[in-house]
Amino acid sequence: MIGRFAPLVPELILSIGATVLMLVAAFGGRRSSGVVSWLSVALLAAATIALIGAPSHAGPEFEGLLSADLFASFGKALIFPSAAVAIIAAHGWFERGTEHASEYSVLILFSAVGMSVMVSATSLITLYVGLELTSLASYVLASYRRSDERSAEAGLKYFVLGALASGILLYGISLLYGFTGTTSFTGVALAFGRGAPSLGLLFGLVFLLAGLAFKISAVPFHMWTPDVYEGAPTPVTAFFASAPKVAAVLMSTRVCLDALAPATDAWRQIVIFAALASIFLGAIAAYGQTNIKRLLAYSSINNVGFALIGLAAGGPRGGAAVLFYMTVYIVMTLGAFLCVLWMRDAEGRPIESIESLSGLAQTRPAFAFALFIFMFSLAGIPPMFGFWPKLVVFQAAIHSGYVALAVAGILGTVVGAYYYLKIVKVMYLDEPAAPYARVREPVQSTLVLIAALIVSPLGYLLIGPLGRLADQAAGSIF
Amino acid sequence: MSGTPWLSLLIAIPIMAAALCLFVKAEGARWTALIATLIDFAISIYLWVQYNPDGAQWQFVEKLPLGGGVSWALGIDGIALLLIVLTAFLMPICIGASWRAIEKRVPEYMAAFLLMEALIMGSFAAQDLFLFYIFFEGGLIPMYLIIGVWGGAERIKASYKFFLYTLFGSVLMLIAMIYMVGAAGTTSIPTLMAYDFPVEAQRWLWLAFFASFAVKMPMWPVHTWLPDAHVQAPTAGSVILAGVLLKLGGYGFIRFSLPMFPEGSFIFIPLIFTLSGVAVVYTSLVALVQRDMKKLIAYSSVAHMAFVTFGLFAMNRQGIEGAMLVMLGHGLVSGALFLCVGVVYDRLHTREIDRYGGLSDNMPGYALLFMLFTMASVGLPGTSNFVGEFLSLIGTYRASSWAAAVATTGIILGAAYMLWLYWRICFGTQRNADAAAMPDLSVREWWLLAPIAIGVLWMGVYPESFMRPMRNDVGRLVARLERVAPAGDSQLTLGKGAMHMDHGAMH
Fold it and tell me: Which of A410, A418, A460 lies closest to B174 in CB terms?
């Protein structure tokens, strides 16, 4: 009986731990915030370690509700550490504000549980439950600075639009259930496999994908992203841009490649459209931005587009490309956001304007150099490691015969390079502006250093092991 | 892989020195950069001496798989060897040229330069397709910074233009590379050089590579980034841009376009000859009317690079060897000319030709060396460019007499704009008191220009030292191209004996 729960060990650790910590937070109040944060990080670390045994528990569990296969473990191995980084990033951020309470880490923990359910879901019901758990925690996180108007606005916007998207998703799920009589991915795949799909099935598929596209902020369902990213407190934005995005992309990958595999021709055109629209809109709309968080929001839209190219390629190779892409993406994004966290004026207030980065290379060379590496890496310019995942998705697309898609995507990188270059220009070419306050955060500095080393040319040493792991993980859903 | 990994060292030394530069003060960074580049030069000379022209095609080979189908594979043939020697030779000179001219943010400047050297060396030595691309594209980043941070007034626009133009050219090549790796199942450049792609695919692949190399070269009409970049870049930046970076385009044609897509190359010979012909005539005319010395030399670079493309796509031994020599000679001469501009720019802070005049009176040493490099640029026999241009023209003539006729006008126009430039700067009356008061070359400047002068004369008087290492490699390339090489229309009715002798001399 207990053995049945073995595949759920990471989720169990997190759920039980989060519940206990919630009590600690409720009774301990603000004094306990430091302890709760570090305990949360420890829980996430424990959950990550618990993954090591997980690949053996392959196959659907609990009557096909979820599957703790290597694919899910791969996703969790990305999600848990980035959730931990989001907690560490908040350390020293909220201390200055007035309203910090220890619930922040608890919310992140619950969100992480939701995400780990998302990546392991093999049934539409678990998929929805995981998604909602993540989303509800996220809505609260977005409006975490409740005295700040922008934060409250971000939370409200996120909630209203998110609820709408969940509704659309749920409608799609109900249509699929109505026309297939099952919610398990295997059953849905069987139903799609029986000849040409009926109109009802197609509608269900489109609604399902529309809901998912909202969660991964793919164009044309991206409108909430810049506002929410800008309004939410920066550590929360860092979290939104990393873990939930990875979870949603991986979940979409599993849905498309597993449940909807026989209907590949139906979803592929949608994914191709979303991919190209995201790449180009993300690149073009970023031009005029003056706020670094908004710019990074468009950058994340742009990056999701490239991951979707891998998904459009389909097959184990495309899946592996998505995994590879998201792994490097998460490192670059977290690194970039950790740098944004350090942008504070002399009084310690956060600054978000790109102008304030002027001449950073002269006032804070190491900081500027780290951001320089992240920007060129996000742009996909070799010799930075960010180039390789782009190459991998293009390779997958060309392998599947989508040469035109790859060509369009690669031209998108040139369009996108412009605004990443703009940040570098501001930092390196412009005259220095008022310098930022010096922040002493050894843990965060170490994290930035690690992220910068991974996406620097040294990252190419990871191609072999990471590529093999991604191949095996993607193979586990077929 | 056996023995010392010389090529890896060639790449690693500048990178380590670049990292070191970031942690020291200005003077320390200067010395670090100079010492590192001199060590690299010494290694390149060692490679030149050790290289066996009659040995295997690829020497000093190293290979270390990285997984994911890419490997750290290095190795050079005679063609890459010569370009590596050229790069290593020019680099210490560039550092020297920046010794006093660059005052702000010296450590970063030196680090950018060293990184650049490492990436260029990597591009020439790479034997893996993706590794080549990483090095090739990576060179953009340091050059962007060099132009953007230490350039002239319009530096930001110029740096953007440089970056986006060249990036756009290169990404199409990346698509072609992915396709090639998929089709041939290998990323090894030596294998791909012998692989026959379907003729229909070759057409597109060739165009994709052309997009990248034509921008890099640069060929008309995608040359417009070059004058901007040159004018705004610091002197040493211009030297390295003209001396080495442009050669990546020509190297790309020799290493990729010609051997990998022979049929594709053949189909597009008319395109290349037309563009090169326009470049020779048009950019030479544009150079004639420039008022800015650097811009004039930049346009002359475009014209000279057209001799390279003419020679390469003539697809015969004279043409290809000539093209290589033009590249090497132009690397020396244009570098030296930019240094000459830098010498007077450092004194008067203007590049306007009209502000100078009669410099031979107060700067005789400068006038002497400038004269030598001007004559070399014009292609005077006894200097490096003569050998290259002459061979390249012979090769072109054997492929198409019309192309050769157009190309030859370039020599005349080149003489016109270069001699006129020299006349306006060094001869005539001294119109401006400040220009007339400029001191002659300092010891440091002699040290920069004299080695290049020796190189120019050496290559002009005894080109065999440079032709020997690449003879077999050019032979292999010509053999590969034999099935498509254009027959030529210049079938003059010569006497039998003369024809015979001609062949004997050339093969």
Answer: A410
